[in-house]
Design a protein that fits this description.
This protein is 50% helix and 19% strand. By secondary structure, the chain is an alpha+beta fold. It has one domain. A three-stranded antiparallel sheet has the order 2-1-3, covered by helices on one side. A hairpin with a 6-residue loop joins strand 1 and strand 2. Helix 3 runs antiparallel to helix 4. The model has no long low-confidence stretch (mean pLDDT 95).
Length: 103
């Protein structure tokens, strides 16, 4: 289960997005739909193709890694962490991923 949420903001557009951290129940139950609803098109394509090839069993793997994939996607799109429901330093260490922050 997602144990925390990170709130990201794109400094150029001002758009804000929320990213859960941890286990993804939505990917377990709905497979490729969460990336589709979040606008993460590459993630949707990856999950959908893997689900088709594995008859849906790939969801048992992606439920553990999809939220981290989404956070990496947001960072690559230029989003920066604004705040979080837990300590950002703790989440950065837990994710083993540098979290750029707003100044």
């Amino acid at each position: 289960m997602a144990y925390a949420r990170i709130y990201f903001e794109n400094p150029q557009t001002g758009q804000m997005k929320e990213a859960p951290v941890g286990f993804s129940w939505t990917v377990l139950f709905f497979n490729a739909l969460p990336p589709l609803f979040r606008g993460h098109w590459a993630g949707f394509a990856i999950l959908a193709i893997c689900a088709l090839l594995s008859f849906g069993l790939s969801g048992l793997v992606f439920m553990f890694i999809y939220n981290r994939m989404y956070i990496r996607h947001l960072i690559s799109e230029g989003y920066k962490a604004r705040n979080a429901s837990a300590d950002l330093d703790f989440l950065q260490q837990r994710l083993n991923l540098p979290l750029p922050r707003l100044a």
